[in-house]
Amino acid sequence: MTIRPLVLGLLLASLTEPALATAIEHVRRGGIHLPLFRTEARQADVRKRDTNSAGIGVGDFLDVTYNVLVQVGGIETPLVLDTGSADLWVISKACTGNCSSTVPLYPQTTFQSTGQNVQLLYGDSRTGTHAAGPIGKDSAGVAGLAVADQYLASIIDTNTTLLETGSAGIFGLGFPAISVLWRQLIQAQLNEEPPTISGRALADVDFRRTPFPSFDFLTKTISFEHHKRQNTSLRSSPEVIASFDTYGPLFTRLVADHRLAEPMFATTLQRDSIDIGGNVGQLSIGELPAGIKSDSLTWVPLRAYTPQEGGLPPSSDAPHEVYPLVWEIAVDDVYFDGAKLARSQLSSPSITLSALIDTGNSLMRGPQDVVAQIYTTLGGETFDCALPHNLTFVIGGKLFPVDPRDFVLPALSDTRDGCVANLASTDPPGAGFLYSWSLGDPFLKSVLAAFHYGNLTHPSQDPPRIGLLSTVPADSGARLQSAVSAAADNGGAFTATSHLAPSGTFVASTTGVGGVPQATAVPANTTTADATPVVSSAVRTPVPVVLLWAFCALVLGLSYL
Ligand SMILES: *[C@@H]1O[C@H](CO)[C@@H](O)[C@H](O)[C@H]1NC(C)=O
Ligand SMILES: *[C@@H]1O[C@H](CO)[C@@H](O)[C@H](O)[C@H]1NC(C)=O
Ligand SMILES: *[C@@H]1O[C@H](CO)[C@@H](O)[C@H](O)[C@H]1NC(C)=O
Ligand SMILES: *[C@@H]1O[C@H](CO)[C@@H](O)[C@H](O)[C@H]1NC(C)=O
Ligand SMILES: *[C@@H]1O[C@H](CO)[C@@H](O)[C@H](O)[C@H]1NC(C)=O
Ligand SMILES: *[C@@H]1O[C@H](CO)[C@@H](O)[C@H](O)[C@H]1NC(C)=O
């Protein structure tokens, strides 16, 4: 793995950029959103309960992982922002593996262990990684909003590459039903006997997909064994849904504790490679970013999974509820370079086309035959970087193109050797999750995405949903071409950088399409408007980008993606 020191060197070069630290506004809390005005730093007071919205800047490791500072038991450390999973885990100071780190590790000083351990396994048998440690509770929070007694995994043994990408763990923003910790804790409560190590909790033969959760233990407790999926009256006991409030993921506990103006968060992700800039990196909590109106977004409901589809069985006191599992929404159609792509032949046409919206995934993944069709149109694996391509998802009747700058990745160190697509294939839907596409960071850099939980315990009362606002500028193709010519003048290398997760929000001096705050000025050729010091000086990437790509694949192998 000779690529790692190279990438790590690049990371360190950018992380020590002192200008970055001074560029950060230390706005800790109080509903401050972008565009920002400067205010004095204020200490977060985790006990005060008057804050119901907040914002925090997002760190970016070469567009491969995005992270935010999360408070856990007295420290604040960057954790990967992951809408594709629902657990909070952080590498402990007691970590015994290769855990040398530039970011703070969890000291465990106020950790209250449950006596249970969790073993999180990612990847397949050949490329697998693991993270293991005790489950316990501690205070935890984000952007000055905190809760006591948050369950988390204190990782003491791992061989994931997370630390090398500047993150100390994972901040899962998904629903309780897919949380490994929630499942293990409620299982222990129901059985009155805590399991120790839960085997291959997240094991999956295909490392590209998060494994589908099993709720068999819930139906077993009401002594029902046979033909579960044919039985239309599967129920769980009321204490199962009620346990969301205590055992649920951090963000859903902020919601349950009525800490937020609205049970939602929104992301805009910056672009730190190809053409640095784009939207400002920001996690908005409890409301949309300032200046953005809810009705300017296209809102679509999440897919709910019935018990027959393997979903969470409803409680006997709310038997008609059907719960979401993941941030998954219907996709009407997919277009590539103006032509509608045929539906995949690899899954049943009766499965509604849908996509997982996943901040923890650095690629876009789709059905193998559809991805192959796109490569056929491209004329092969490698294509001319300067020709803008248009992959567009139709969602809620609106077009959501992927910015052509987010579609490409240089095939080698020199852009004149061509580009590859930020696109890979994944297994067809069917047994388990029903989504065909997993839209990761390339898609999320091209939109403002709002994730609204609705009513977590009674989704029928307020359905969970995602709102999207496209932020792709009209001249995005021309901007790709400028970035490619700039790279040619630069020995063929695109620019790339990394941002540390700030303790406040970034300063945005301009807004782009839809009024969304921008990381750098628009257009990129004017230096006067480019007053924002948000982006550290561009680091030329001397890293052979195919290696960078391989590194991404390794990081992807963690499958928190
Ligand atoms: C990580 O550990 C697992 C055992 O849990 C092992 O099978 C795997 O090969 C290791 N992966 C790496 C990348 O070292
Ligand atoms: C430990 O990890 C660091 C980077 O995180 C790496 O540079 C070093 O080579 C690793 N050491 C061993 C023994 O694997
Ligand atoms: C379905 O499950 C319930 C328990 O949840 C059981 O009482 C009922 O008999 C089952 N129905 C069938 C048709 O198996
Ligand atoms: C991208 O494709 C969509 C769907 O075909 C089309 O409506 C849109 O105009 C295209 N955008 C550009 C910039 O070509
Ligand atoms: C969710 O719906 C239930 C049932 O209507 C209601 O009792 C509860 O207050 C709702 N929760 C929130 C946070 O509004
Ligand atoms: C910047 O580009 C725009 C078009 O993209 C052009 O109209 C303008 O003149 C350029 N400004 C400078 C200073 O080159």
Automatic annotation (TrEMBL):
CDD domains: pepsin_like. Residues 1-21 form the signal peptide. The keyword Signal applies. Keywords: Signal. Gene3D superfamilies: Acid Proteases. GO terms for molecular function: aspartic-type endopeptidase activity. InterPro entries: Aspartic_peptidase_A1 (IPR001461), Pepsin-like_dom (IPR034164), PEPTIDASE_A1 (IPR033121), Peptidase_aspartic_dom_sf (IPR021109). It comes from Phlebiopsis gigantea (strain 11061_1 CR5-6). Belongs to the peptidase A1 family. This is Peptidase A1 domain-containing protein.
